[in-house]
């Protein structure tokens, strides 16, 4: 009898956790759609000078990548430390490479 009650509690907890996770994923998806529409609007509407549009679009892209990592790839969960290290290491290597090539080109 206790085993059955315990399993029901675990099922209830898991359902609640899954529902909360789905809510966060839907909110994140909605925000990513809004960011994409804002980026298209900035380009099509020519509301700002190009000097401000490009950094704004890059910032929106960085935020969307963070959303992808943390909510859709579940990087916020425990047990994903090694993939996180590899991804962040790759990003860091890309930043260093682009910076070094930019410096060499303009020097």
TrEMBL record:
InterPro entries: Cyt_c_oxidase_su4_bacillaceae, Cyt_c_oxidase_su4_prok
Lineage: Bacteria, Bacillati, Bacillota, Bacilli, Bacillales
Membrane topology label: Multi-pass membrane protein
Cellular component annotations (GO), alphabetically ordered: plasma membrane
UniProt key word Membrane: yes
NCBIfam families listed in its UniProt record: CoxD_Bacillus
Transmembrane segments: 24-45, 51-73, 85-106
Location relative to the cell: Cell membrane
Keyword set, alphabetical order: Cell membrane, Membrane, Transmembrane, Transmembrane helix
Name assigned to this protein: Cytochrome c oxidase subunit IVB
Superkingdom of this protein's organism: Bacteria
């Amino acid at each position: 009898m206790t085993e059955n009650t315990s399993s029901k509690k675990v099922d209830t907890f898991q359902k609640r956790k899954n529902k909360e996770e789905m809510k966060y994923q839907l909110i994140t998806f909605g925000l990513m759609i809004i960011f994409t529409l804002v980026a298209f609007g900035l380009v099509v509407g020519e509301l700002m000078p190009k000097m401000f549009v490009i950094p704004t679009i890059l910032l929106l892209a960085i935020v969307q990548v963070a959303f992808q990592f943390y909510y859709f790839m579940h990087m916020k969960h425990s047990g994903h430390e090694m993939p996180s290290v590899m991804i962040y290491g790759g990003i860091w290597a890309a930043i260093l490479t682009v910076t070094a090539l930019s410096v060499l080109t303009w020097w």
